[in-house]
Every structure is written in structure tokens, then in C-alpha cells.
Amino acid sequence: MSLPEIRCGHCGRKLAEGHVLVLSIKCPRCRVLNHYQATSHSPAHQGVPDRTPTDAQPTHHSLVGR
Ligand SMILES: [Zn+2]
């Protein structure tokens, strides 16, 4: 059983391992502050209506072929 590794996004140094919800950790090597936040499997969109507003529809216009 292995834990997911948390590595510095700048130099790749391994900072910790485990499951993270929210974490800020400064890399001791390059002193870059790495911020991690678990976004998957969290009901972060509660309270947001499922229906997309009509003026927020994604544009399907493509210049390919026409
Ligand atoms: Zn680093």
C-alpha cells in the first residue's frame, strides 16, 4: 500500500506523501511555495444550479471546414 507522493512543482523534490485536502508547503530546496488542494470527489458545486445559463453556453463555432 503506497501513498501518493507530493512533490515540488518546481524542482520535483519529494516533500511529503499521503492524501491531501488542502496543503501549503514550502520546498526546502528551491523555496517555492507549493499549494495543493484536492478538487476531485468533492461536492464543491453545491448550491450551483445544474442548468447552465443561456449566455454561458460553450461556443461550438469552429473555423475548420468552413
Ligand atoms: Zn522545489
Description:
The protein has 66 residues and is an all-beta fold. It has a domain at 1-39. It has no helices and four strands. The strands form two sheets. Strands 1-2 form a two-stranded antiparallel sheet. A two-stranded antiparallel sheet has the order 3-4. It is elongated, with a radius of gyration of 19 Å. The termini are far apart. The mean pLDDT is 81. The site of zinc ion has 8 residues, from loops.
Task: List strands and helices in order, with pairings.
Layout: E1 5-7, E2 14-17, E3 22-26, E4 33-37
Antiparallel strand pairs: 1-2, 3-4
The structure holds zinc ion (ZN).
The neighbouring-strand order within the major sheet is: 1-2
What gap, in angstroms, lies between the N and C termini?
53 Å
Tell me how many strands there are. 4
Q: What order do the SSEs take from the amino end to the carboxyl end, as H and E?
A: EEEE
Shape: elongated
The quaternary state of the protein chains shown equals single chain
Q: Which structural class do you get from the secondary structure elements?
A: mainly beta
Largest sheet: 2 strands, antiparallel
* Mean model confidence by pLDDT: 81
Bound molecules: zinc ion
Q: How much strand content do the residues show? A: 25-35%
Rg over alpha carbons: 19 Å
